[in-house]
Amino acid sequence: MKQIGIGLAGFGTVGAGVFKHLDRNRALLSERLGVELVVKKAAVRDLKKDRGVNAPASLFTTRWQDVVEDPAVQIVVELMGGIDEARALIIRAIELGKIVVTGNKALLAEHGKEIFDLAASKQVPVFFEAAVAGGIPIIKAVRESFVGNHIKSIHGIINGTTNYILTRMTEAGLDYAAALAEAQAQGYAESDPTLDVNGWDAAHKAIILASLAYGTWICPSKVFVEGIEQVTARDICFAKKLGYRIKLLGIIKADAGAEIEVRVHPTLVPEKHVLASVNGVFNALCVHGDVVGETLFYGRGAGQDATASAVIADLAEAAAALDVKRRDCGFMPHGLYGDCKPLDQITCQYYLRVPVDDKPGVLAQVAGVLGSANVGISSMIQPESDGEQAELILMLHDATHAQVREAITRIHALECVIGEPRLLRVENFG
Ligand code: NAP
Ligand code: HSE
Q1: Is the CB of residue 15 below 6 angstroms from any atom belonging to ligand 1?
Q2: What does the pLDDT read at residue 269?
Q3: Ligand in nearest proximity to the CA of 199
Q4: How far is ligand 2, taken at its centre, from the CA of residue 226, in Å?
Q5: According to the CATH classification, is domain 138-300 in 3.40.50.2300?
Q6: pTM of the shown model
């Protein structure tokens, strides 16, 4: 059977998983693809590290250039992570006419335009299923299965670590620090979980999805990103009382005026909505197309096996692309939509918690500021106070970020407000 030479640049969690599963499902893959995928070279930093798989020492090199330049390698798989070297590797591979597979969401979010422009000019495909939501085939779905749709919206839980933390805060009543420590102890969070908890891992994935859905690379600086570090057990508890769960959501929308909205933030999701019951490290995405309507994708968004499954799917497509030229190079530019909506113009509903003195007239003062900013209150709860301090929990109607920001600044300045007001966004999927 014809062999296709694969080069693995990176043989860590995902790279070793790809090697393991190519080996384990060799017969099945050969039967399905009509070719044999054979790893010819692999780059690592440390040649002495035990990889936990049965790979010969001769396979390994410490220079990624050895992988890319090897004449036996036809498809280059970038699984090193990081930006500079991964970018240099992918550019070199494309220049050599070698098809690229990558799971590097940070790189694509930052340099996607450069990479796909080069790929298009050289007619060399770049595949990136593993970059978004691990084992869930969301890239293929948006690029191919929904090709006949305008994508109206995508709502996604696209970071497993934060979903685990929020789930444990909700179900076990843990505070943020304890839930994060547990996620790290379970091996879900990275040893440095900064990009997970500050929302940027999810933002990178949202940028890739939005760029694919709307055919124009989204500039990271135009994306509103808020992490989960400030979410408190108290907010989770009040949200529950109001009939919501708090999830870190990636929200992507395009309006009729062709403006695109991309944001990632902790969000109150109605408890009856399917995303509210996606728990633990699982990811899920709801994609709304104008032809297909609502669709739902669910699965493991990270980890060795789920991510290797996505890389192998790309390898199958890459192998086919060696024989039959593709019309697109992995990114399908539609050019149908315009730029990102300015943050201040983004409209949504809100949850606002305001710590106040428990005195007559306080509620009227807070409501008065909201009213003068033209922000309506849809409901309110005030837990029994101790007679000195109280908390007002207000659910606000649709308003722009600009309106709400201005109102909160004025509320914070009121003498009766004794702490920082806490604002969270609400999504009612209307
Ligand atoms: P990882 O475990 O840290 O593995 C990285 C691999 O690349 C290691 O084998 C490392 O060598 C090698 N490497 C790094 N820099 C190198 C260099 N300059 N030259 C040669 N080898 C180099 O990372 P991972 O978790 O597998 O993730 C890989 C990529 O997949 C990242 O872009 C990540 O964002 C993405 N991804 C990961 C997951 C996941 O669940 N882990 C899910 C989706 C996407 P050593 O082993 O010797 O250190
Ligand atoms: N750190 C990511 C997550 C996994 O927790 O979802 C890789 O995308």
Answers
A1: yes
A2: 98
A3: 2
A4: 16
A5: no
A6: 0.96
